[in-house]
């Protein structure tokens, strides 16, 4: 018996020893590797969002913003047929769009992603402001028996009002984590802003969850052989249509939802998502991927989010395809930054928004003047307008207008909502408007 056990342990340890460790590449090396796979020498460079006098300064002139004004039609099939019924949308056209986004833009979720087991690591009764709450710290352990050299533990917290007599709606935020060495004033500002929206959520009798995307997948190119993407690939670099970080972050949110569905304090039919900037992009992907999410606040998501890829305003396809951001995307996306153009993309962001239909989506932004031009506020509005026919086909109201609203005006009557607040690159000022919108859809 002891000998057999010893033999088993030995076999296990040598199996482990034979596993190749994760490949180590810098973002630059991995980016170059993808270009080689694509047979591309070099990409067109991105624009400079910081220095308006740079030769490649980002464009903020609306008259130059629409070099490719004709968008792919979300309601025409690949073989040219007009989609006129909800059944054709669900059975024919939507799957075509899903496939294009998977292959060319965000990459595919692998077939064999391992299972996640959730553990409550602590439960605390505390006060959030003046509100008695219960906060659970949770950890979603990804089964790594296929490649034990990579650990993935999904970080999540759930806070619900202690006084709740029945399951409550929950807003789950994709949260940034900054190193403590970051500027103290900046961190304090973020902490205060987070406290405020959380108070607004609690004041409605709802709960909130905080999901940490980078616990699922690191936010850089060098990390692509680690995290969930690296685990599934056993530490090897990605294929051209493998998922990027945005899709992996969205996948993690779905696993968080698996947990929320089991928590008796949560009304799983009323779980909304919120994310800002890169996490606004990821929230849109999560809405497309998982119909269990009821509503979303997509804040300043910009390029590779709600902004049309075909727009020349602020951040461009070329920036997203460069070494600082390409890891968000599928390798295939790089080719649209050279030799192909934005106009060659088989889909555009209005169709990503449409994948959330008929569920409500609130698209928020700051203003160009206050420094949120990089995310192209108007390009995101145009995408929402162009997504509207899909909502209408499904019996809902989309934007309801194609007239760009003035700063501060909330277009919230339909299932697609839009508002530019009067500040810069922040989600904070739009929270009250989003929550009002959510309250209407959740039914108070
Ligand atoms: C950079 C990047 C954007 C991104 C933003 C953020 O500005 O260019 O695409 O949205 O970071 O996530 O804060």
Describe this structure in words.
- There is one protein chain.
- The chain is α/β, with parallel strands linked by helices and 444 residues long.
- The chain has one domain: Alpha/Beta hydrolase fold, catalytic domain (Rossmann fold).
- 33% of the residues lie in helices and 16% in strands.
- The chain contains twelve helices and nine strands.
- It has a nine-stranded mixed sheet, with helices on both faces.
- Helix 6 packs across helix 7.
- The mean pLDDT is 96.
- Bound molecules: alpha-D-glucopyranuronic acid.
- The site of alpha-D-glucopyranuronic acid has 8 residues, from loops.
- Alpha-D-glucopyranuronic acid (GCU) binds next to loops.
The CATH C-level class name: Alpha Beta
Form type: globular
CATH architecture: 3-Layer(aba) Sandwich
Cofactors and ligands: alpha-D-glucopyranuronic acid
Report helical residue fraction. 25-40%
Topology:
Blueprint: H1 2-18, H2 27-38, H3 86-106, E1 116-128, E2 131-142, E3 153-161, E4 168-174, H4 184-203, E5 207-212, H5 227-232, H6 245-260, E6 266-276, H7 278-289, E7 295-299, H8 317-320, H9 349-354, E8 361-365, H10 368-372, H11 377-393, E9 416-420, H12 431-442
Parallel strand pairs: 4-5, 4-6, 6-7, 7-8, 8-9
Antiparallel strand pairs: 1-2, 2-3, 3-5
This protein binds alpha-D-glucopyranuronic acid.
Question: Short description, anyone?
Answer:
The chain has 444 residues and is of the alpha/beta class. Helix content is 33%, strand content 16%.
Main traits of this protein?
444 residues; alpha/beta; Rossmann fold; 9-stranded mixed beta sheet; globular; binds alpha-D-glucopyranuronic acid
């Amino acid at each position: 018996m002891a000998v057999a056990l010893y033999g088993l342990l030995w076999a296990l340890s040598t199996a482990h020893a034979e596993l190749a460790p994760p490949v180590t590449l810098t973002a630059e090396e991995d980016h170059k590797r993808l270009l080689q796979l694509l047979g591309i020498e070099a990409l067109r460079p991105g624009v400079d969002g910081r220095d308006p006098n740079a030769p490649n300064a980002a464009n903020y002139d609306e008259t130059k913003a629409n070099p490719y004004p004709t968008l792919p039609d979300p309601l025409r099939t690949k073989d040219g047929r007009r989609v006129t019924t909800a059944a054709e949308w669900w059975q024919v056209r939507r799957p075509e769009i899903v496939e294009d986004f998977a292959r060319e833009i965000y990459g595919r979720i692998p077939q064999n992603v391992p299972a996640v087991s959730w553990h409550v690591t602590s439960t605390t009764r505390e006060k959030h402001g003046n509100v008695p709450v219960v906060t659970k710290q949770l950890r979603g352990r990804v089964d790594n028996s296929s490649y034990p050299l990579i650990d993935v533990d999904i970080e999540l917290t759930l806070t619900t009002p202690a006084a709740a007599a029945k399951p409550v709606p929950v807003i789950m935020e994709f949260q940034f984590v900054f190193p403590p060495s970051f500027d103290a004033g900046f961190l304090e500002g973020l902490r205060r802003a987070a406290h405020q929206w959380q108070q607004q959520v609690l004041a409605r009798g709802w709960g909130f969850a905080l999901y940490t995307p980078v616990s699922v997948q690191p936010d850089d190119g060098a990390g692509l052989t680690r995290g969930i993407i690296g685990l599934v690939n056993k530490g090897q670099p990605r294929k051209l249509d493998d998922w990027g970080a945005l899709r992996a972050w969205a996948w993690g949110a779905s696993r968080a939802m698996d947990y929320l569905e089991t928590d008796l304090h949560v009304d799983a039919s009323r779980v909304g998502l919120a994310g800002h900037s890169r996490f606004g992009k990821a929230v849109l992907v999560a809405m497309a991927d998982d119909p269990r999410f009821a509503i979303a606040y997509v804040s300043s998501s910009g390029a590779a989010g709600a902004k049309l890829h075909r727009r020349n305003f602020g951040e461009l396809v070329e920036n997203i395809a460069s070494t600082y951001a390409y890891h968000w995307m599928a390798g295939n996306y790089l080719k649209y930054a050279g030799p192909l153009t934005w106009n060659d993309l088989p889909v555009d962001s209005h169709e990503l928004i449409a994948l959330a239909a008929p569920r409500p989506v609130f698209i928020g932004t700051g203003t160009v003047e206050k420094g949120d031009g990089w995310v192209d506020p108007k390009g995101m509005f145009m995408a929402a307008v162009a997504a509207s026919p899909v909502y209408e086909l499904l019996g809902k109201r989309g934007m309801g207008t194609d007239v760009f609203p003035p700063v501060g005006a909330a277009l919230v009557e339909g299932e697609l909502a839009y508002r530019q607040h009067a500040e810069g690159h922040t989600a904070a000022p739009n929270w009250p408007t989003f929550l009002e919108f959510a309250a209407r859809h959740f039914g108070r």
